[in-house]
Write a sequence for this structure.
């Protein structure tokens, strides 16, 4: 079955540094990946997505990289700000299924 | 737009009681989902629906029931509440194609004592 996991449960960075959050997935049929941000007391919020026919996608201060060979994706946040402090989840969807599977999450702590 | 609205935000139940968590979306999304989130954990799918009148079990459906009589509403019913159902519950919906990102409600924090 599909499983999505994260390498580090907590990541602490200094304000202004770049952050990298990693995610591994197990289903080689996964074709769509999403990163969500969940602030304390709120529901997850979409950040950026990427389809399996792409290796990289950039948004505002965020970049997602996909390595299908090793079934790994990462979320890079440039110039991390205190407002970026949250739990970040990756989710994946396997072809033919519209149901995303979520990983455990990484807590990003940004120190001023 | 209100997006996805969940009620109540907080609830304390006694063991054996029942309750319904309400979820409504105003985006005309066909797909709707219920997830639970335990402390320090990811989201586990309880039930989902691909349209009015159609529901299906997710990863952890035991102890829950759902219905989908309209496109907008997707209530989650807890029968005979147990301490193991203490969790934060999130409702979500997604675009008709189901392939894009899901929009989440603010969550319902449920404690069973």
């Amino acid at each position: 079955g599909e499983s999505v996991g994260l390498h580090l449960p907590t990541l602490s960075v200094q304000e202004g540094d770049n952050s990298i959050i990693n995610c591994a997935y197990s289903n080689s049929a996964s074709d769509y990946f999403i990163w969500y941000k969940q602030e304390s007391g709120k529901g997850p919020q979409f950040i950026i997505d990427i389809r399996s026919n792409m290796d990289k996608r950039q948004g505002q201060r965020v970049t997602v990289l996909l390595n299908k060979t090793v079934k790994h994706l990462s979320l890079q946040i440039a110039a991390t700000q205190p407002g970026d402090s949250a739990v970040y989840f990756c989710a994946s969807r396997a072809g033919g299924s519209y149901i995303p599977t979520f990983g455990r999450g990484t807590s990003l702590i940004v120190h001023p | 737009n209100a997006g996805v609205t969940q009620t109540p935000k907080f609830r304390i139940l006694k063991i054996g009681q029942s309750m319904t968590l309400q979820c409504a979306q105003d985006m005309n999304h066909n797909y709707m989902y219920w997830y639970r989130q335990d402390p320090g954990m990811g989201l586990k799918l309880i039930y989902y629906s691909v349209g009015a009148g159609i529901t299906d079990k997710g990863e952890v459906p035991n102890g829950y029931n759902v219905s989908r009589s309209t496109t907008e509403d997707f209530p989650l019913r807890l029968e005979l509440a147990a301490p193991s159902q203490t969790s934060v519950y999130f409702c979500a919906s997604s675009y008709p194609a189901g392939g894009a990102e899901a929009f989440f409600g603010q969550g319902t924090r449920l404690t069973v004592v």
